[in-house]
Amino acid sequence: MNKFFASPLLASPVLASLLAAGLLFGGNVRAQDLQPIDRIAAVVDEDVILKTELDRAIANIMNQYAGRSDQLPPRDVLERQVLERLILLKIQVAQAQGTGVRVTDQEIDQAIAGIANSNKISVDQLRQQLARDGSSYNDFRSSIRDELLVQRLRQRFAQTRISVSDAEIDAALAAQANTGTQYHLAHILIALPEGATPEQIATAQKKVEGVKTLIDKGEMEFNAAAVRYSDSPNALEGGDLGWRSLDEIPAAFGELMRKMSAGQVTDPIRGPSGFQLLKLVEVRDASQSGPKLVTQFHARHILVRISDTVSEAQAKAKAETLRARIAGGAKFEDVVKESSEDLTSQTKGGDLGWFTQDEFGPEFGGAVAALADNEISQPIHSQAGYHIVQRIGSRQSDVADQSKRAQVQETIGRRKLEEEWNRYLREKRGEAFVDFRVGKGAEETTAPAEPAKPAASGG
């Protein structure tokens, strides 16, 4: 089935990074507080990161940690963490633009409306909030544009580089036959460079053992230690890795998880990226039993896309014209063949097969659910454009096995994407020309400065 809708903006890991890096909602960070310094913090290929941009992101993070500033790393380490995030963002945006990824103003407006709605405010109220915080609405739009570009780059990467075979799904299902257990994990990474020297390995090992000692003695919570000492991209989120099933965890780690209780932290583990501490936050049973009945709809559609050259008004007008032709006696399949811009379903007369109400997004699914069998809709607006839909039928279907198989496929694909995407970003980061103009400059800083207290304890 053709999934012609982009994944929701608010579910994007890139948006989460933007929020964590303080690039979106800042919380009372005044522009005038950042005005005196306006110089370059780093040069990234042909782009630059301004010192004001870096200061704003750092100030926003410090605002988020108000009253908990002891959980943050030293200022120079925090500055480098945030600057690295901004560098990676610049690299990804440039890569997206260089490979032809484009975002329209209409799509940015829709994304902003979604963000406002999720915060239970109007777009005008969002503008007012940004103004009160001293933030520019144009800068905010630019951040959303960059997020959408990176999201689409990641989607394109997944489509071209990630595949999951039936054999992999079968093997995962067989492994899960007797367990539906999922594990909520967090980690701390003490990174090592490629080709690390014995001295670098010894220093990193001493540091990770010292951090473990702090946690074991109760002198620092795990998430606070992750924020302060971890070199992982998710350090500022407390090292949270979310919920994972066993097929999403490397086999060696999976064996450890089976033997651990919630709240326990592993001893240091040496991996390809460096030394890790893993925490088992909690465990849950996610197994499914019995039938899972859902309503499915069978429909066909005609799609008129919105693009740089076709405005929303023009797309809607064209969709209304196509519906009028059908109402006037034209065959639906003929209009599909002549005018639909969904190339995958066009060859099948617009047929979308059977799908659940939420599969293609709330606007589309809700409109189809409201139709009677054989009824043809008025133009339906979605992220893709405008649709004329004919509902063919509906049914109650047991999708337990189908749903479980799809879930396993998504899980394996997500794990592969995470691994390959991180490898891709490391590769692009290594290829990029980056000239630091603040902090420690061009000096290599593969890990935050070693905490004196854990180092003294040895571990």
From TrEMBL:
GO cellular component terms, A-Z: outer membrane-bounded periplasmic space
UniProt-annotated stretches for the region Disordered = 439-459
Biased region (Low complexity) positions are: 444-459
Q: Which GO terms describe its biological process?
A: Gram-negative-bacterium-type cell outer membrane assembly; protein folding; protein stabilization
Alphabetical list of Pfam families matching this protein: Rotamase_3, SurA_N
Which PROSITE patterns does this UniProt record tie to the protein? PPIC_PPIASE_2
Q: Does the keyword Nucleotide-binding apply?
A: no
Q: Which GO terms describe its molecular function?
A: peptide binding; peptidyl-prolyl cis-trans isomerase activity; unfolded protein binding
Signal peptide coordinates: none
Q: Which domain of life is it from?
A: Bacteria
EC nos:
5.2.1.8
What reaction is this protein's catalytic activity?
A: [protein]-peptidylproline (omega=180) = [protein]-peptidylproline (omega=0)
The keyword Signal belongs to this UniProt entry's keyword annotation? yes
Q: Where in the cell is it found?
A: Periplasm
Q: What is the documented function of this protein?
A: Chaperone involved in the correct folding and assembly of outer membrane proteins. Recognizes specific patterns of aromatic residues and the orientation of their side chains, which are found more frequently in integral outer membrane proteins. May act in both early periplasmic and late outer membrane-associated steps of protein maturation.
Domain writeup? The PPIase activity resides only in the second parvulin domain. The N-terminal region and the C-terminal tail are necessary and sufficient for the chaperone activity of SurA. The PPIase activity is dispensable for SurA to function as a chaperone. The N-terminal region and the C-terminal tail are also required for porin recognition.
What protein name is recorded for this chain?
Chaperone SurA
The protein's organism comes out as Lysobacter antibioticus
The organism's lineage?
A: Bacteria, Pseudomonadati, Pseudomonadota, Gammaproteobacteria, Lysobacterales
